[in-house]
Design goal:
Blueprint: E1 10-15, H1 25-28, H2 36-56, E2 77-84, E3 87-94, E4 98-107, H3 113-119, H4 122-128, H5 137-156, E5 165-169, E6 173-178, E7 187-195, E8 198-206
Antiparallel strand pairs: 1-3, 2-3, 4-8, 5-6, 6-7, 7-8
Bound molecules: coenzyme A.
Amino acid sequence: MEQVLPPDVVVDEHRGDPVPATLFPEEELAVARAVPSRRTEYAAVRTCARAALTRLGPGPVAVPSAPDRAPIWPPGVVGSMTHCDGFRAAAVAHADAWTGIGIDAEVLEPLPPEVLSLVMSSAEQAAISELDPVICADRIVFSAKESVYKVWSPITNAWLGFEHVEVRIGPGTFTARLLVRGLGTDLLHGRWAVGDGLVVTAVALARP
Ligand SMILES: CC(C)(COP(=O)(O)OP(=O)(O)OC[C@H]1O[C@@H](n2cnc3c(N)ncnc32)[C@H](O)[C@@H]1OP(=O)(O)O)[C@@H](O)C(=O)NCCC(=O)NCCS
């Protein structure tokens, strides 16, 4: 994940099975009725968040969830978390330098054909049809949109559909054109990387 984020964004990640971890009482609320596997993943990614927050400065504090599930970072911090099968990561940065951070990790496999047209416009599908299928560009576009959403949502508190963002991927980079207003910019730049059967994407929106 580090290679897709600027150097002053602090990242912590963990591979393998999630390790059980303790939650703060305010975090417990989010998973009070969750199945055990969800609770374990929720806690495990917070172990990453606490490690990253310790290196950034605030220390191993609670990261509860807003009603829309967005993480509530301590004052002066922006960040993002992701988990997928066998991997979890958190990224945090100082809010005086960064307006928002979005990260996403996905198992690198093609999207199910039935969701392709929900996630990507025909122009996006045409753009990736030129690329080697082995890179699973459709999954990279999906992950890029999830990262964009994680930047967009905490700033705007508004919905953003897959059809509201046009993603174009280049070598290790992507651009995301927002077709709706709310962020103060209509163009986001992100990065992606693949390895160990995963794709990771990230968007870091610098403070103007
Ligand atoms: C929220 C969402 C992006 C999560 O993505 P995901 O691939 O399912 O799951 P990930 O493991 O990568 O991310 C989950 C984490 O994202 C974070 N998250 C959840 N909602 C969020 C929000 N509204 N804003 C920012 N971060 C959010 C949380 O930290 C969550 O983990 P936690 O509940 O354990 O704390 C996705 O479930 C979703 O609701 N998408 C909405 C529609 C969308 O993606 N639109 C794309 C527009 S281009």
